Amino acid sequence: MSVDVSSPPDSPTAIDAVPLRHPWRWVAAIVILILLGLFIYGASTNEAYGWGTFAKYILDERIVNGVWITIQLTVYSMVLAILIAVILAVMRLSPNPVFRSVSWVYLWIFRGTPVFVQLVFWGLLPTIYKNIQLGIPFGPTFFHLNIQNLSLYFLSAVLGLAFNEAAYLAEIIRAGISSVPEGQSEASTALGMSWFLTMRRTVLPQAMRVIIPPTGNEFIGQLKTTSLAVAVPFTLDLFGRQRDIAGVIFEPIPLLLVAAAWYLLITSILMVGQFYLERYFSRGATRKLTTKQLDALAEAQTLGEAGHV
Amino acid sequence: MSAVSDTVTTPMVKAESVCKNFGALRVLKGVTLEIGRGQVLVLVGPSGSGKSTFLRCINHLEQVNAGRLYVDGDLIGYRERGDKLHEMPPREAAKQRRDIGMVFQHFNLFPHRSALANIIEAPMQVKGVKKAEALSRAKDLLEQVGLSDKATAYPAQLSGGQQQRVAIARALAMSPKLMLFDEPTSALDPELVGEVLGVMKKLASEGMTMVVVTHEMGFAREVADQLVFMDAGVIVESGKPREVLSNPQHERTKAFLSKVM
């Protein structure tokens, strides 16, 4: 066999084919545009939607304040939920049978009862437990707090939402941890890493790729679940505010649209954040090269070919 | 406690009737052998013969059920107090593993870290080596395995042979006194086997003590000081590789070698 390597490869002209046509895509697009146009026309001329009221209240100070409170409820409860969930998931997978059972019982209770019921309970907590005392049981007390006199509705809502959410997140995190191949922890162990270090440096970062998409889902879900805070009862959030205003002016539909528009806007922002998080944690997950790497390789190829000639 | 720790005479690995069960299944039924410093021992045998399990016992990835296993004079996995053995706390077991490098059949590189980050991970996290120091050592190691240009590549962007060479560099970064290889070339395309074996040969010639489970008889013949043939959890035959390979004494060894050679 003798192939002349030194001569430049005989490159044929690039293919210039007629692209495949897709007429049905155009038909579908036109049909949908017509239907959409009809719906928008109907909605704008139907007085029940009350667009005037919508415009008047979309930037109302109380509504904007409610949006801010809703964001706070969501973020605080999710951060707390993630912390609890990591602990629960690690406990569930730990070799310690006591930890495993505690984690199981937590899940059983908080996943097994409706979040609305849990929120009512958190609201009733000051009625059930009138005082918080810190000390030795049946012995001296070091710290005493009468929680009946405090206004704890916001805190109750955050705790209620977080404790419920943690049960679901714990399962998501557990699934993520289980998705990391055993060889990974084995390699870490063989390098002398402790169980904790293996979790923190090897397993959890890889689990993140599996954990983040459903967690983003839960984040968006939590944003909307905050509307159940009325059960506490806490009504300063977006949904509660909207309901209060609608109750006074007897126009529920435009105010529901106001709330829906705000929820949609926040969800869209959260989706953008999720996109970037996913991209960060998928490092090394694919063989696909980045544009930068491809450019570097192409350059090397060109140089190599030039060198041969 | 091991009384003898004379660094010249203590063998690097000493196994005394090592047994390992998985439930009712007896995988190792009394393996006794010694590996001297700077020696290369190659373990061969049919699959299920217990050779990989034995290798995993040496760095305590599996806990021995009976017998004793010493590395550099230290009892592996247990502490001996009086005539009673105590299970070793995880922290101490991790400490023992630091000095024993391991290379796996499926490489097990960390996919979320670049080649360089894979190599500096354990020295920095486990030994607390400074970053600059770990990086310069990692670059040396990458050069040793011939991959200086792949420092920033992620494992998924490397060929199997390149991944395995990075894995060897990662193990070497902990400056181990003993290296374990668990079928390091079995998952590789035939074309890529040579580059990994080349790195291993160089390592052996530099005086590293190595235990290698492999089916590469050419490597065994050329590099090994001792060849051990295992079957059904026991050592059937062992000796100088040339002698065992060209003149096997046992029927079982003859049958196995006639199939793989």
Plain-language structure description:
The complex is a heterodimer of chains A (309) and B (261). With 309 residues, chain A is mainly α. Chain A has a single domain (65-303), classed as Orthogonal Bundle (MetI-like fold). Chain A contains eleven helices and two strands; from the N terminus they run αααααββαααααα. Chain A has helices at 23-45, 51-57, 61-93, 97-112, 115-128, 153-178, 182-190, 195-225, 238-249, 252-281, 291-308; strands spanning 131-135, 141-146. In chain A, strands 1-2 form a two-stranded antiparallel ribbon. In chain A, a hairpin with a 5-residue loop joins strand 1 and strand 2. In chain A, helix 7 (182-190) packs antiparallel against helix 8 (195-225). The longest helix of chain A has 33 residues, at 61-93. The radius of gyration of chain A is 29 Å and the shape is flat. Chain A starts with 22 loop residues before the first helix and ends with a helix. The mean pLDDT of chain A is 88. Chain B has 261 residues and is α/β, with parallel strands linked by helices. Chain B is built from nine helices and twelve strands. Chain B has helices spanning 51-58, 90-98, 115-127, 131-144, 160-172, 190-205, 217-223, 241-246, 251-260, and strands spanning 13-22, 25-35, 40-44, 66-71, 74-75, 78-81, 84-87, 100-103, 178-182, 209-213, 226-231, 234-239. Chain B has a six-stranded mixed sheet with strand order 8-9-10-3-11-12, with helices on both faces. In chain B, strands 2-1-4-5 form a four-stranded antiparallel sheet, covered by helices on one side. A two-stranded antiparallel sheet of chain B has the order 6-7. In chain B, a hairpin with a 2-residue loop joins strand 4 and strand 5 (74-75). In chain B, helix 3 crosses helix 4 (131-144) and helix 4 (131-144) crosses helix 5 (160-172). The longest helix of chain B is centred in the C-terminal third of the chain and has 16 residues, at 190-205. Chain B is globular. Residues 1-5 of chain B have low confidence and may be disordered. The A-B interface holds A 181, 183-184, 186-187, 189-195, 197, 201-202, 205-206, 281, 283-287, 289, 293 and B 59, 61, 90-91, 94-95, 97-98, 100-102, 104, 106, 108-114, 121-122, 125-126, 154-157, 170-171, 174.
